[in-house]
Amino acid sequence: MTAELVRGQNHPLPHTRLEIRVTAGVPVLACATFGDERGDAPGTDSVAHPGSPALPGVEVSRRAATGPRLHIDLEAVPAPVQLVRVVLALPEGVGGPDRFGAAAAPSAVVASADGAEIAGFTLTGLDAESAVIALELYRRHGGWKVRAVGQGYAGGLGELLADQGVPGARETAAGIQEAAGRHPARAVREAGPGPGTPDGARRPGAVNYTHPGRPRLTATPATSPATSSPAEASAPPSGPGEPPRPVAGDAGGWTMDERLYNQVWGMFEDLARSVAAYRGATGFAESRMDQELDRLLADPRGRTGGAGEAARARARAAHDELAGRARTVLDRDLDRLAAESEVVEPALPPAYARWDSACWQDYQVPREAPMALRLGDLRLPERPGLRIPMLVRLPLERGLWIDSGRSGPAVAPAADPRRSAMDTAVSHAARLLAVHPPGAFTVQVIDPAGSATAALAPLTAAGVLDGPPATGAGGVAALLARLTRRVDLVQMAVRGGAAESLPPDLDPAEQLLIVHDFPHGFDDRTVTQLRYLADEGPAVGVHLMMVADREDASGYGPVLDPLWRSLLRITPVPDDHLADPWVGHAWTYEPPVVPPGSGILDRVLRQVAQKRRAPRR
């Protein structure tokens, strides 16, 4: 799992053969410098750069690029070398920005030789600097660690090298820039995607709104170098000194569906990174103030009197200055994300859109399934109004558990959590039906006591269920037996390579089973079948949606723990329950809500039912 570092944080390196991938919105020079036990560079021959790209154990990119790479073999680094610095600098004379503050914040990822990411660092907070130390790899107790540095230099590469003790630093920096000029940044524009160049890298001067870490996951179809993409062509120009304006679909991908999906996930990653950097910076400010105050308390002379009070005031002022600068950077990043969200949200197709989106007014039953589905929104407390769509890939790889227990801060005392949970389940089921072609997705319901009749009314009235809800213990057993048989038959056919031998009465459509009021109506046998469907069903097109309060099933003890863990828990009310081990955030999940009084759900379901009944041509 990738460790997302903040400035000053370190992380152990479990491998010695590494690749460092840099992502930037503009071409940058990647260099590497050696340092001794004092951190000084032994000489000019301890700098790897495009004109001299190799040092013992280190090789850097031979040109300026938006995604340069460094290949490092720590075992081959000479023993006197105690640290390897990864340096980024803006190339001169290519028409690009002259400071990092005028471009999207670069990011660096340390990966093993097989591509597995180890640690990442986004260099936020840069302004007038044109050269920066991104990372340090250093020896510690017989091993190696990586440290996120992010120290920038407004005086450029010459000032940076001079600070490291490189002889003739200014001349060396000029030579590096000259060498880069022999491999100019036009390679990024003309050669197309290649090693170290993210797919979809843009020409200088074109609209570019690349956030730190924004992935270019899939190559965009080739276009004429003189022709902008439709998204670029429709983008309004930015004014002088203004950041480029965001564009919907501004990500890699073969289709607009895929580009929007990649863009939404890029926005999610950017929000996570920006808030992680902010929290790390404010935590550092708090820690430094506490340390200064502790030193004052340790000295009896500093506890009282005007000198002590002045020292405490200085410590608090330094804290406030650091925290204020961090908040300014965060607000800038979040403002840009909010602007992007305002552009992206109206462009989302029904599978990704909110229920109040205008796209539902012109809804047509699709001919093919989308690549993902919106399950709700995610937000963080630093900007509650900034909501990122929560998209999951289709077909669903995990079942869903809509928790009907009384949880979450927004549950009203008079609210019925069970009814709210079932309304949420119906909303999700309706969207799944709406985004699949006619007959490609079916929904079945287990409602042992018949207590969900009112909540199920939109589905039953439209006639989109595959049959009446299963009630009573007999109905539960019969439906589960039928679905278990389907899973067994499809598994055997797939493993035996005999898919054509499936029984003619077997429905090939994707199946969604909604289970309400669990474990009422279940016995030991049907509980075992339910667990089997949760584990084996998704791989062969049988998906589970549990609407349940875990406490109701507490009598089964730990035997059901694997079932709950196999499901993605979501709630019918906003709840801070989605843990993000990537950066340590607890995301607030907000379920999709159909606007009160809106008939959109019924209208969409009627269209789905009409298409399902229409004779196939």
Overview of this protein structure:
With 617 residues, this protein is α+β, with helices and mostly antiparallel strands. Helix content is 32%, strand content 21%. It has twelve helices and 22 strands.
Question: How are the strands of the largest sheet arranged?
Answer: 1-11-10-3-8-7-6
Rg from Cα: 29 Å
Q: Based on CA inertia axes, which overall geometry fits?
A: elongated
Average per-residue pLDDT, rounded, comes to 84
Question: Characteristics of this structure?
Answer:
617 residues; alpha+beta
Question: Would you spell out the secondary-structure blueprint of this structure?
Answer:
Layout: E1 3-5, E2 10-12, E3 17-23, E4 29-35, E5 47-48, E6 54-55, E7 58-60, E8 69-73, E9 83-89, E10 107-112, E11 117-122, E12 131-140, E13 143-153, H1 156-163, H2 169-181, H3 186-190, H4 230-233, H5 256-298, H6 305-344, E14 372-379, E15 388-393, E16 399-403, H7 417-434, E17 441-446, H8 457-462, H9 472-496, E18 510-516, H10 524-536, E19 542-548, H11 561-566, E20 567-570, E21 575-580, E22 585-590, H12 600-613
Parallel strand pairs: 1-11, 16-19, 16-20, 17-18, 18-19
Antiparallel strand pairs: 2-13, 3-8, 3-10, 4-5, 4-9, 6-7, 7-8, 9-12, 10-11, 12-13, 14-15, 14-22, 21-22
Helix pairs in contact: 1-2, 5-6, 7-12, 9-10
